[in-house]
Amino acid sequence: MSDVVSSRLKWTVAGTIVLLAAAMGLKAWDEHQRADANLLLTLQAEAEALAGRVGGRADTVETAIRLVTDNHASRSAIAAATPGVDAVMTLADAKQAPEGSRLDAAATVAETLMQTKQRAGLSELGDVVLVSGSGSQAVIALAPAGTWLPVMSNGREVSLVSGGLRVVAGDPAPRPANGLRPIRQARFEKGQGLQRSALACSDIAGGGIAVCSTTRADVFTRDDLVSLLIFALLLAAPVLAITGLLGRLSKKQADTFVEAARDEQADRIMATVMRSARAGYWEWTPEQTSIFLSEASSEMLDLEGMRTVSLGTFLKQVHPEHQARVRQAIEKSREIGWLQVAFVLAKPPLRWIEMRGSGSDTEDGKLFGGILLDISDRKQAEDRVKAAERRLRSALEGFNGPFALWDHRKRLLYWNRAFATDFGLTDTLRTGMTHETVTIARSGAIRAERPSADDNQSTLIGLQGGRWLKLVERPSPDGGLITIGIDVTENIGIEEELRRQKERMRKTMLDLERSEGRAGELARKLTEEKSRAENAANSKSAFLANMSHELRTPLNAINGFSEILAHELYGPLGDPRYKGYAQDILASGQHLLDMINDILDMAKIEAGKMTINPQPIDPVDPVDAAVRMIRRKASDKDIEVVLDVQPGLPEIDADHRAIRQMVLNLVSNAIKFTNAGGKITVAVQQYGPDIKVSVTDTGIGIPAADLPRLSRPFEQAAGSHDRNYEGTGLGLALTKSFAEMHGGELILSSIEGEGTTVSFTLPIAGPGEAEDESDDRDAA
Questions:
Q1: CATH number for domain 611-779, candidates 3.40.190.10, 1.20.1740.10, 3.30.565.10, 3.20.20.70
Q2: Between the CA of residue 660 and those of 394, 523, 656, 711, 735, what are the distances in Å?
Q3: Which of 177, 418, 451, 480 could be cross-linked to 166 through a Cys-Cys bond (beta carbons 3.0 to 4.6 Å apart)?
């Protein structure tokens, strides 16, 4: 019986040894495969990182090309200001270069790129060629390919591949690609004997060029030999372990197994919780030579199945640009007793990981551990907020007038460069300064200051350099303050000239009264002075009419970027106060833009520069368009808007845009002076040779004494200011001017407390024939 047991034991031991040998062999093969996989991952990450770097350079060059095409910037200046670019020119100019030159080779590549709709390629002389536009007026940029890639060491090689050509870093001369093509999956290629090479390529966004990273990788390395020797030595140990375990499984060992099972179950529960929170646990071994990772941490670092890794293996999962900083933080933590560092993983997609930890004393000695957190969402949100702030700051810095933002306690929050330079406060301003302090500090740069005659909330300021600014300060809904300055130097000059003309005219009239004998001469002078005064007034109106682009452009930029922030188009802003500030800026900017548009339109009309373009149109079309545009504004105030159209109306010769603007002005006024629950009726009817458009509201009405003056510019009803209604008072004046341009007229009727009806007529025959008929009637 004992012989049978002995025989079975021998066969059991022999079988166990065979199985262990097979397992160790598979382990050696698995480690070899993992080493190859890690090498390919590193090469792929390196190729993609370099592709992103080259793509960034290509984006910079494309931006420079657009400056040439869109803004007609100097090509030589753009090339000199763009690192790594030798020349920027049109395709037509490049074709004129001598045959065999760099420009001739670049022109050939550019034509091929335009045909294949790609943005970048390599020329036969080793240059990177980028193209923008189409046809002979397309603009190309030329850059030496060798300068776009870093020179690698340790047997690694980085190259650019395009169109059968290959340029290696450090060797700008092109060579055949020899079958090398851009791929997304890294691979090994055979060499001579036991030699082979690892290859990874990544396409650059936009196509045309790929970045490839290669390195030599032996089939059987020294590490593989060492591993085999270690496994051979370890194979002898299990014989003793197995024979000992056969007869020595005690109750204490069984309890140990039960405890281990419980710990494993607790670890699984903790792993589930940590994975849900996108977090994982880590700790150093007592010797601090390797790092233990929880299952969630291993998955987070793309090291599935690896629970204890060396510091080198851990750092390979970190992006190359962050590896040195992470290594330094880990080494320093051993001295200071805590660790906190954020880094990007090497393998795409882009993920941010934060590593936190601290040391503590235990019975087994010093224990150092902590958690890994996936903070990608937080980083992306922070980047979006920073990008939005940069865009808004760029827009405000691009505004050539002073701009400042104050909080509800009138403390300075933000100012642009023009605010500091115009008032000589470059070295004085700081966040939190009060409005009074800044006002006192800027007095040294001001030589004159007086209220604006046309706006009691604006101030005209004369600077020491001779410039004049119109400083407008408007409150924001949260109780803050917005300060905007506009350069009105030329306008002030015109006003001064007008004042001097009036003074000379007054003196001329006095001289005329004192000397009857010089009546004829003085009358002639009076006529001349009057003409000059009228010319000065016309110049002022013409100046305002021509200022539309200069005034609207910065306001459009402010409104556009503040709208992006207010609607959080690029993601949440983080702090809700930012959204409120952005809403305040947008509301104030839109209100100011509406005021400027009305003033400029009225100035154009007075200067004779506002014209209409009559075309045969359906009279209902522009009216319906205006009602649809403003219906939402009425709905927000709970006001019903009804469109009443007489059927069978004929076409009329009129300006579609002008009619739409007139209806918008009238309905906007009606909404402004109609309380919630009211009704506005827009009617379109034919009365003889005219089409009549009427807007009737159930609002507060207008006193009969105010009706004659409401169609004049900047006029409002006497009670309007008491009711805090916003507006410039130009709506009815603009509508009347547009109606008269069409040959029609504006009609007002109102009953105070019951409502108002404002109508305008449009001749069906158009403005020209209407004027002819009027002249015929006058002659008769």
A1: 3.30.565.10
A2: 35, 47, 6, 18, 10
A3: 177
